[in-house]
Automatic annotation (TrEMBL):
This protein's record includes keyword Glycosyltransferase: yes
The EC number(s) this enzyme carries: 2.4.1.-
Protein name (Swiss-Prot/TrEMBL): Glycosyltransferase
Similarity comment: Belongs to the UDP-glycosyltransferase family.
Pfam families: UDPGT
Record keywords: Glycosyltransferase, Transferase
An example molecular function term from Gene Ontology annotations: UDP-glucosyltransferase activity
Gene3D superfamilies: Glycogen Phosphorylase B
The protein's enzyme class: transferase
Record InterPro entries: UDP-glycosyltransf_plant, UDP_glucos_trans, UDP_glycos_trans_CS
């Protein structure tokens, strides 16, 4: 009988893609893979539907199964109630997941997304081991599993603490303002309670796979293995199996993106790449500040622009008059999307201005590119802290904290990373992490060994 692992991905591109990289690793090690998906009608995000379609097309060995949509299921929209709706969707589909698992043969384990831990309550009573894929880093995982208890003991909400530090075992002091947005809500609110309940469920898994590698997250990995990290509870095994980087289905693209041809014509390490993730965009005022800063810096740049409420932004309308003409030749502005991993690996790319989404961070690390941090949402402020203080691969653009990064800071930070000794030190540390990332999945590498432990535990 074939050995099957069922994957239950989340409803966001940034969570789905690492799960598909895990699928490939499982296939390479002789396991059959089934992917259970909630009906796409729940998620209006066209980018998510597109990546699911590409994965199904380019991974014929993976069996994709759609769980029927439960009547009354809310539609997922990117607003303050997103996480609450997300968890509601997971709960409503537990019975369909149970039915699918009962009808499947040879299931050795189920791996669920980190926001779908409620499904463990369905999986484990069936006698099937249940694991979590945590798509951020080990430091954020260490924070997340500790925060429910910290909040329960606190005399106030995290929001009221402002920038006062939250002390967590094994981690640097973290300003309360840097926490996941849902954690800053009133502790008695539905969204905060639901978020904390979900985080509390992570240690109930039989193990947690993390999209990182040991040497990038040394302090946090050690903390997760220490009983003091989770007093009164037992943290399950943590397997650092990353880095899982790059898109899914990119290899079947019909042609090379034009921005790569433009990069071919630029000198080595001279281009600043600005890209803010699949859901990141800026106001027109902010876009104009970036424009002025990049123009005044004098450096080459490739900038992916997303405008609010527009799938096809009118660049002439939102950029300063004459900007495109004045920067022609040394700058290229791309609407909406560029093949980020390919851009970062290109010899011409010298720095990366990023929103600090973890997939983007890993793509920067594996390319050996120094980064400038401009967090926007989710756990990105936490990632920024670790990138700057622990990993040493980035510097912070601080204006995000005031709601507007001014042109002078854009110019100054770009000049710093491209021209100064501080920038050269960032590059050297990024290059060292690049080498470590490449070694992690080699024979004897830490991630290969961690994945082997995971497979061994599944078979036990």
């Amino acid at each position: 009988m074939e050995k099957t692992v069922v994957l239950y991905p989340g409803f966001a591109v940034s969570h789905f893609v690492p799960m598909m990289h895990l699928a490939r690793a499982l296939l390479d090690h002789g396991h059959a893979v089934s992917v259970a998906l909630v009906d796409s009608a729940v998620n209006p995000d066209a980018a998510f539907r597109a990546v699911v379609a590409r994965a199904a097309a380019c991974m014929p060995s993976v069996r994709f199964h759609t769980l029927p949509l439960v009547e009354g299921t809310p539609t997922l929209t990117p607003d303050a109630q997103f996480v609450l709706r997300y968890l509601d969707v997971v709960g409503r589909h537990n019975e369909h997941l149970r039915g699918f698992l009962r009808s499947s043969r040879g299931v050795r384990a189920v791996v669920v997304d980190s926001l779908s831990v409620e499904a463990l309550g369905v999986i484990k009573p069936l006698g099937i081991p249940g694991y979590v894929l945590f798509t951020s880093n080990a430091a954020v995982l260490a924070a997340f599993v500790q925060l429910p208890a910290v909040l329960a003991e606190a005399q106030t909400s995290f929001r009221k603490l402002g920038d006062a530090p939250v002390e967590l075992f094994g981690l640097p002091p973290m300003p309360a303002s840097h926490l996941f947005g849902e954690m800053l809500e009133d502790p008695e609110s539905d969204v905060c309670k639901a978020t904390m309940a979900a985080l509390s469920g992570i240690p109930e898994a039989d193990g947690v796979l993390v999209n990182t590698f040991d040497s990038l997250d040394v302090r946090a990995v050690a903390a997760l293995g220490d009983p003091r990290c989770l007093p009164g509870r037992v943290m399950p095994p943590v397997y650092c199996v990353g880095p899982f980087v790059g898109g899914v289905g990119d290899e079947v693209a019909s042609q090379r993106h034009g921005c790569l041809a433009w990069l071919d014509g630029q000198p080595d390490r001279t281009v600043v790449f600005l890209c803010f993730g699949s859901a990141g965009h800026h106001s027109e005022e902010q876009i104009k500040e970036i424009s002025v800063g990049m123009e005044n810096s004098g450096h080459r740049f490739l900038w992916v622009v997303k405008a609010p409420f527009s799938d096809d932004p009118d660049l002439d309308a939102i950029l300063p008059d004459g900007f495109l003409d004045r920067t022609s030749g040394r700058g290229l502005v791309v609407r909406q999307w560029a093949p980020q991993a390919d851009v970062l690996r290109h010899r011409a790319t010298g720095a990366f201005v990023t929103h600090c989404g973890w997939n983007s961070v890993l793509e920067g690390v594996t390319a050996g590119v120094p980064m400038l941090c401009w967090p926007l949402y989710a756990e990105q402020k936490m990632n920024k802290l670790f990138m700057v203080e622990e990993m040493g691969v980035a510097a912070e653009i601080v204006g995000w904290q005031r709601g507007l990064v001014e042109a002078a800071e854009v110019e100054g930070k770009v000049r710093m990373v491209m021209e100064t000794e501080e920038g050269r030190e960032l590059r050297a540390r990024a290059s060292a992490h690049k080498e470590a990332a490449a070694a992690a999945w080699d024979d004897g590498g830490s991630s290969r060994a961690a994945f082997a432990r995971f497979l061994s535990d599944v078979e036990t």
